Known about the structure:
It is a single chain. By secondary structure, the chain is mainly α. The protein has a single domain (39-213), classed as Cytochrome Bc1 Complex, Chain C. Helices cover 73% and strands 0% of the residues. α6 packs antiparallel against α9 (181-213). It starts with a helix and ends in a 6-residue tail after the last helix.
Amino acid sequence: xxxxxxxxxxxxxxxxxxxxxxxxxxxxxxxxxxxxxxxxxxxxxxxxxxxxxxxxxxxxxxxxxxxxxxxxxxxxxxxxxxxxxxxxxxxxxxxxxxxxxxxxxxxxxxxxxxxxxxxxxxxxxxxxxxxxxxxxxxxxxxxxxxxxxxxxxxxxxxxxxxxxxxxxxxxxxxxxxxxxxxxxxxxxxxxxxxxxxxxxxxxxxxxxxxxxxxxxxxx
Length: 219
């Protein structure tokens, strides 16, 4: 602890870390009426960080191949110390994150916080909800079970109801006419890289706008 304290004091003397933290985080004014319901967005972000961390741990053992995906998940849960816990936290965390994002947006809609000057807050929030759902959907296929296979089959058929371009969208999602190894590889890439990276970009914009306009009302 003394070593960490010395290191922090040295960094603080050179980069004024304490002043930066107090100005931007620990001493930021918020409305007096802000209650526990105002924490849904922050909790969703905390779960996102947990999902990223547990997902990285799962990547150590997971193999995105139809012949070995299920075996790698089974090995992780059965043979890796605490692997079952990491896998369960990641699975349950995805459901909890979706619920928290929806509760956060329900509060915004109920109190009409989406009105000027926060219209873009709402737009970015809708995009983040869509990315959250897409990330959960693409991750559901990765264990390559019968349930996840048929869930992906049904899910990728839904865009087919769109006139003219629907069938093309479905085939693009499946990377062909049916669910296959190509679909698994595509969903894996979307789940672990494309969708999370896009979500981070929109989170940065979302947080910057909130810092600019304040929480719930101008500060």
